[in-house]
Structures are given as C-alpha cells and as structure tokens.
Amino acid sequence: SQQGEEDPQALSIQEGENATMNCSYKTSINNLQWYRQNSGRGLVHLILIRSNEREKHSGRLRVTLDTSKKSSSLLITASRAADTASYFCATDSSYYTGANSKLTFGKGITLSVRP
Amino acid sequence: EPEVTQTPSHQVTQMGQEVILRCVPISNHLYFYWYRQILGQKVEFLVSFYNNEISEKSEIFDDQFSVERPDGSNFTLKIRSTKLEDSAMYYCASSEEGGANIQYFGAGTRLSVL
Q: Which residues are CB-contacts of A7 (< 8 A; sequence separation ≥ 6)?
C-alpha cells in the first residue's frame, strides 16, 4: 500500500452511530493529521497526533496512532448528517526532511451519515 | 477567522495555453504550498515555498510549472503550456513557522484543460 492509505474507502452509517476510519502508512513520521473535505470544498484540518502520542481527543473525535504498526484510526462518535464528507489522513515527515515539509495524503474515505 | 483565498474558483483553458492560479495565504504564515487533486485520485503535493524560494518540489512539478510570490500577500502557480492531464483541482495551503505544520487550505481552483 502507499503512504497514507485509508480504509474502508466508503462508509455509510445511520445518524447517531459511531464511524471508525483507518489509515496505514509506510515511512517514519513526525505527526499524522486528519482532514475533512466537504463536496466541492477545500480540506479542513481536524486533528493532529504526534509520533510520540498514542491517543488524542477533540470533541467527538478520537484519533489513535500505533507507530509500530504504522497505522492510525479516527473515530467520530454520535455521528450527524453534517459529518457527511470525505476524510483524509496525511502524514508529515518534517522532522526527517526539514521544517514544515509536504503532507502526504491518502485517497480518502467517503463517509455518508443517513439522517 | 483567517482563511486562504484562491482565485478563480474555476478556470477553463485551451491546451497549450498558459494559466496563472492565484492564492492569498493567511497573513502571518511563512510556508506556502500547492497541491493538486485529479478527479477521483488522492491529493498530491506539487511544491512548497519558504523565504522566497522553493523548498521542496515533487516530480510532477516540472519545467512547465513555476511559483512566485510577487508581493507581500499573493502566491501564484503558473503552468506555461497546459496539457489535458493538468485538469484537476489545485489547492493552495499555508502554515506558520514553528508550528506543528498544520496546513490551512483554500477552497481550490478547478482547472479544466480542453
């Protein structure tokens, strides 16, 4: 798989359910970030987890990172119809390549939350 | 809330023509980026820019591409001679110095090469 591969590629759930999205990557990272993209819009930063962190919370978002497995998961609890969007993980290897380097994105997960 | 602004939102051009995509990054940010997303594919890094020079570029960013910060607020991407395969969404992003490299993206410019 390529750097920043998410699964599943598409997820459809009922409002109120939890949504879990996974991401795997291949190279060493400084941090991993999750972004959301609403249809026809730009990418919006959701949450960042550093390589020395294992879990982080922000509101209804919970992200985990397992550097030994080179994987991350994003959990959205109590989903809402407004959560319908594409979600991308992005890896940052700035520590290894220099300050504020590129982000490497996966192909994204399309989440549909049915009202 | 500060945001990255991109113009135009949609650009249609003929193959072989030059296009300039414009971006106004967040004012106190010092790192600027261009990414593109071909329909149905992943967001791909093109180039990063810091201190008035390119700091990193991908293999996509060949001699047909150039970037410029012509003044204190604008950041542009020029494609000299567009090809059909340049059709994509182009996103500008910026991040602050010394931060965690959280990149703030504009809404994108859809480039259609006919």
A: A21, A22, A23, A24, A109
Distance from the Cα of residue B6 to its chain's centroid: 9
The pLDDT tens digits for A38-55 are 987 889 999 999 999 999
With contact defined as beta carbons under 8 Å apart, do A23 and A70 qualify? no
Q: What count of residues does chain A have?
A: 115
User: Cβ(B22)–Cβ(B38) under 8 Å?
Assistant: no
Chain B positions in Cβ-Cβ contact with residue A63 (cut-off 8 Å) = none
- Asked if A45 lies within 8 A of B108 by C-beta distance, the reply is no
Residue in chain B nearest A38 by alpha carbon:
B107
- pLDDT per position as a tens digit, A15-34: 999 999 999 998 888 899 99
Quickly count: other Cβ atoms within 10 Å of residue B107's Cβ. 19
Max CA pair span of chain B? 42
Most confident residue range from A8-17, A39-48, B13-22? B13-22
Amino acid letter, A57: H
- In this complex, the residue of B43, B91, B101 whose CB is nearest that of residue A100 is B101
